[in-house]
Design brief:
2 domains; six-stranded antiparallel sheet; 275 residues; nine-stranded mixed sheet; D-amino Acid Aminotransferase, Chain A, domain 1; alpha+beta; 15 strands; D-amino Acid Aminotransferase, Chain A, domain 2
């Protein structure tokens, strides 16, 4: 049984099998991606495909199959298993003996409530950094960060690197607002989430000033507002990071959140027309 799977079936190399009969070998190398399904549509699946295969390139591994199979497998699982809304996890595992498998299955999701969007969420900080931020691969830092979230009760923890710079969330990307300018970490220092890429494109389209740079932990108190982005939270305001409080009802954040929701709606409609 795959530990994070909530579906009773898993697509394994193109064949739907009982989840009870599927395992990821202990100690296997795992490259994965998570995407959101809304109204039966895999959101921004083309971008997820690019990132999935980029992880192979950056880790020095040969791409295991043609890119078209990635989207086909996801749609096959969605339609055969009947996913309407939820989160899908795609996993390519390589055992110690180089036995590989490509899995697609549903995982537990937790979407922010209307109250969280209105009042913002509390976040903490966690000292840790990924060895190769742009490779979406299982890492100890993520598991340790999740433990701190469980212990402290915050919604998310922001990773702080060895130079005391804030980089990203354990499962999200992070943005800060000062006046009318949005500030975020350098792409080379973070796992560039699909939502982050969409948000940055929207920032440019809306002509909002953007700075991509190092963000010192000591300067968090200088920002007016902050938000996280990700597959599940979309654009979610941050109420506080540790003892630093932010304005939740910020015009820049609200404008961006509305634009992103509109983009999702348009993507779903266009995807359905294509199919």
């Amino acid at each position: 049984m795959v530990h994070d799977c909530i579906s009773t079936q898993i697509l394994v190399d193109g064949t739907l099998r009982s989840a009870a009969d599927v395992q990821i070998p202990e100690g296997a190398t795992v490259i994965y991606d998570v995407l959101r399904v809304m109204d039966g549509v895999p959101l921004f699946v083309e971008d997820h495909s690019v990132r999935f295969f980029k992880s192979f390139d950056l880790s020095g591994r040969v791409r295991p199959f043609e890119e078209v199979l990635f989207e086909q497998s996801i749609n096959q699982f969605i339609h055969q298993y009947g996913v309407v809304n939820g989160n899908i996890r795609c996993v390519y595992s390589i055992s110690a003996t180089e036995q590989s498998q490509f899995l697609v299955y549903e995982i537990k999701h937790s979407y922010p409530t209307a109250e969280m969007y209105a009042q913002g969420v509390p976040c903490g900080t966690f000292i840790g950094e990924r060895a190769n931020p742009n490779v979406k691969q299982e890492a100890a830092v993520k598991n340790n960060a999740y433990k701190k979230i469980a212990e402290t009760g915050v919604y998310e923890v922001l990773l702080v690197d060895s130079q005391n710079n804030v980089t990203e969330g354990s499962k999200s990307n992070t943005f800060f607002v000062k006046g009318d300018t949005i500030v975020t970490a350098l792409a080379q220092d973070v796992l560039c989430g699909i939502t982050r890429l969409q948000i940055i494109d929207l920032i440019h389209l809306l002509h909002i000033p953007l700075e991509e740079r190092k963000i010192a932990l000591s300067e968090l108190q200088d920002f007016d507002a902050a938000f996280i982005s990700g597959t599940s939270p979309k654009v979610l305001p941050i109420r506080c990071v540790d003892a630093v409080e932010y304005k939740v009802q910020n015009a820049v954040v609200q404008r961006l959140a509305e634009a992103y929701d509109k983009q999702i709606f348009e993507y779903i409609e266009n995807y359905k027309r294509k199919k």
